[in-house]
Amino acid sequence: MKADTLITGISQLVTASGNGPKRGKEMRELKIIQRAAIAIVSGVIVWTGKESEWKGEAEIVVDAGHRAVVPGLVDPHTHAVWAGDRLADFEARTSGLSYEEILAAGGGIRSTIRATAAASQDELVALGKPRIDSLIASGATTIEVKSGYGFTPAAELAMLETIQVISQISPARIVPTLLIHVPPVSAANRPSYISEVCEELIPEVARRKLATAIDVFVEKEAWQIAEAEQFLEHAKRHHLAIKLHSDQFHSIGGVELGVRFGALSADHLEASGPDQIAELAASSTIATILPGVSIHLGIPAAPGRKLIDAGAAVAVGTDLNPGSSPLFSTSEALALSVRLNGLTAQEALVAGTINAACALGLKDIGRLEASCSADFLVLHGSDWRELVYTLGRNAVRDVWIGGKRVQE
Ligand SMILES: [Zn+2]
User: If you measure from the C-alpha of residue 120 to the centroid of ligand 1, how many angstroms do you get, rounded to a whole number?
Assistant: First the structure.
């Protein structure tokens, strides 16, 4: 066998094994190869194993210097493109106002929508690209980015175009999602807005392939079940995959709706109870938890431990956004899931790699095995557990995407 690139000097190569999401106990089953090597051809892994067992040739040999290697992380939930800031909200909330009170007062998310609408595409790219870069530096090699601060169909399209521009200049694999985020302020305008989204926005996004999935914020203060159902039906008709913001503050049926529509993932789940946990465990929908929100807003953490014990497939993301999760590190999201959601180190790695890839409907990423994209991280240390142990310091040394080192 002849490889373009051979990575040697790997103290431990640590990965989930086999296609498809890992659920329940499977989330603790990692394959660990000591003193390993990875052989790459045209950006794809062709062989992994013990370095002493490699029998082929390689054009370039890169010595990892006795450091641990894990799959590139997948951040399955971000809102990385926005303008303005929420520093005044942060101050108001930490002085006693609730997120919903700020929202009801016309602050919160609506101030982000106004600032984002007022920004040009160049400005939004200039704001969004460095955020993506910091996620990459923290180990993310595939990053989902949602629209949702556009509000009008034209502004949503503009946001998705901005995400497309960032995707063309970023070394990371960017996965765009159309997010139907907040309803019009006046209830009288809801039906016409819904029909605009269903009849114009969704078909246009699908036709221009500006997003691979739709996401709807299902919540007491946002979209109701019957409304969300209309969006999902139209999305399905146009072959968009489905994701949902569900059970963030109240469990109003978002999880059940997602499961019924075969959603790729139901995200948030802070307010999910035993019924929602059982629904997810019995479904193919990935349970995506977002510990950055719990630490930033002080809301209860999603029941990660209970979900896994019930047999669900759990993924973890940053939910990077200005209002509820200013978390610019994907590896730190995993580290927080261990502390806040009760995941083990092994479960957190699986949640941030293969399960997060499945939450985006992607195959052949999120694990280090033959035929997978050569997306991997060389850590600073020789023990992979530093990735989820370390707080406030980057445990990631080198980031490789598609067989190329994008950061060292
Ligand atoms: Zn979100």
Answer: 23
